[in-house]
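In response to reviewer comment 3 from the previous cycle, which asked for concrete evidence that the modeling workflow produces usable outputs, we include below a single protein chain processed end to end. The sequence was submitted unchanged, and the resulting structure tokens are shown without manual editing.
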Amino acid sequence: MTITKNIIIIVLTLVFVGCLNKQNTELDKIDMSINQTSQINLNELSFQEILFNYSWLFGFYEGTARDKITFFPDGRYSVWNGYGLGDFAFGEYEILNETDVRLKFPVDFPHEKTSSADYILGNIFNNNEELLLKFDREYRDFYNLMKLYSDNVFFVSNIDSPKGEEYSIDNAIAVKINGRIKILNTLNTRKSPSIEAPFHYVPLSDRQSVNSNYLIDQYASINLVFAGEIFDYEAISKHKDEINGLNEPWYRIILQHEFYYTFAWVYGGYVEEISENDIKNSDYFQVQQAVAAELVERGFLDKRYFEEMER
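The workflow returned the following structure tokens.
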């Protein structure tokens, strides 16, 4: 009887200890999950693109800084420049809490420090020895999710925002979606999806369907796209406008150039969606001729273009 009683006591003790251990394990899991969600994940900080809170004009289009910052697990970060400097500066950072990150001014320069490096770091740190950044997980714009920011600079992540959703861009709400359209009639290009928006000008010499050798003014810019031209688009406006009896949205098209690209809005009442087969079957030479005729009529292209083509 005594042996049986002792066995029962031992079993009950083991069950009780097991329950305590399980409870502690569950508590550990809860504590761990709290720590993970309250602390900034290093992966969320990696490869942030640096965008200054201003942009500058390259004659006809706006650009942003092509620089990035990378955070390493050992508490260091690097600043990278895409115009030849590479990883040109290394410094220390500290994650203070779930919203704050402190950067110390770089002290390690693998190469000789240049005026370009001084310029970039001066804009980031605003001539201070350290920079306090705020982390925003809820941030989402047309291109990126999450950001680090201060008063004079912000870094956006390299995580693309989802397609098929609505975003604010160019002073309007638009759906992020990719496709191709063919222009059916000469259209104005605008900076936002509105008939009241300013025109968006691009140099004629950079347009793919324009023979720049015959331009009367090599520096001329234009705010038009012509019938037959084909463009990729990356967004469609949520709203529709009634123009000339049509009620259609606007398309944010990509204007490809030799060294860069810009974006402009065209009204959807005079475009059609096309497929890859439509592009293959399109007559590029015929389109180029039609565009040239428009440009001659508008005084942009020398009529000798057609004289040369007839020879």
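The longest helix spans residues 2-38. We consider this sufficient to address the reviewer's concern, and the full set will be provided in the supplementary archive.
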